[in-house]
């Protein structure tokens, strides 16, 4: 595939999704390793991606900059790259606890609502539960999984009980779990 053919949104999305898979879940599928903080060598990543996608550093920079979810970060000198959050492999993103807004949101599919009310929001195979600072983002996240349902999380009560929150570099709020006692339905609150 020629480089000029790569420079369109559909190809960038396809490449970005593959990079997300590699940097968050399965670095071994292209034979790279992540360090303890989730970084990998940029040059090595490009070399491993080149046979499949024909990319260079310029294209990788464009993909990172144009990713609408801002999934990735480069080191200051562009020699390393990592995913900002969403890992199922164990990495330490060096995040410090932050005070979140009083209310955060979690978008999910209707089919998961009863289970969440019973068990709370669990991180499943990821390192953290992902929460949104605004309703619109939560609705977008939930709509990827089916008919959307949005939970509202009382972060003030969680903080008072000692739960910690972290803010990823791309603006996603993270925590270890959200017990059901801190949840309410956004729909219930606006009726």
UniProtKB/TrEMBL annotation:
UniProt xrefs under Pfam families: PTS_2-RNA
Look up keyword Transferase and say if it applies: yes
Listed A to Z, the keywords are: NAD, Transferase
The organism's superkingdom is given as: Bacteria
GO BP, sorted A to Z: tRNA splicing, via endonucleolytic cleavage and ligation
Q: What class of enzyme is it?
A: transferase
Write down the NCBIfam families for this protein, in alphabetical order: PRK00819.1-4 (NF002014)
Q: What is this protein called?
A: Probable RNA 2'-phosphotransferase
InterPro entries registered for this protein in UniProt? Ptrans_KptA/Tpt1, RNA_2'-PTrans_C, RNA_2'-PTrans_KptA, RNA_2'-PTrans_N
* Single annotated GO MF: tRNA 2'-phosphotransferase activity
Q: What family does the database annotate?
A: Belongs to the KptA/TPT1 family.
Q: Does the keyword NAD apply?
A: yes
Its job? Removes the 2'-phosphate from RNA via an intermediate in which the phosphate is ADP-ribosylated by NAD followed by a presumed transesterification to release the RNA and generate ADP-ribose 1''-2''-cyclic phosphate (APPR>P). May function as an ADP-ribosylase.
Q: Report the SUPFAM superfamilies cross-referenced here.
A: ADP-ribosylation
- Could you say which EC number(s) this protein's record lists? 2.7.1.-
């Amino acid at each position: 595939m020629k480089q000029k053919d790569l420079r369109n949104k559909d190809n960038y999305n396809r490449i970005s999704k593959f990079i997300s898979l590699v940097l968050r879940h399965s670095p071994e599928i292209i034979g790279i390793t992540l360090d303890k903080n989730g970084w990998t060598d940029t040059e090595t990543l490009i070399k491993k991606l080149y046979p499949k996608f024909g990319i260079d550093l310029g294209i990788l920079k464009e993909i990172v900059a144009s990713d609408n979810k801002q999934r990735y970060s480069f080191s200051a000198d562009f020699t390393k790259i990592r995913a900002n959050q969403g890992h199922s492999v164990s990495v330490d993103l060096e995040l410090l606890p932050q005070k979140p807004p009083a209310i955060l949101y979690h978008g999910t599919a209707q089919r998961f609502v009863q289970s969440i009310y019973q068990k709370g929001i669990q991180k499943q195979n990821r390192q953290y539960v992902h929460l949104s600072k605004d309703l619109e983002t939560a609705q977008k996240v939930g709509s990827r999984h089916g008919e959307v349902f949005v939970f509202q999380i009382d972060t003030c009560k969680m903080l008072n009980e000692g739960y910690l929150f972290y803010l990823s570099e791309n603006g996603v709020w993270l925590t270890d779990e959200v017990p059901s006692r801190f949840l309410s339905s956004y729909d219930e609150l606006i009726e």
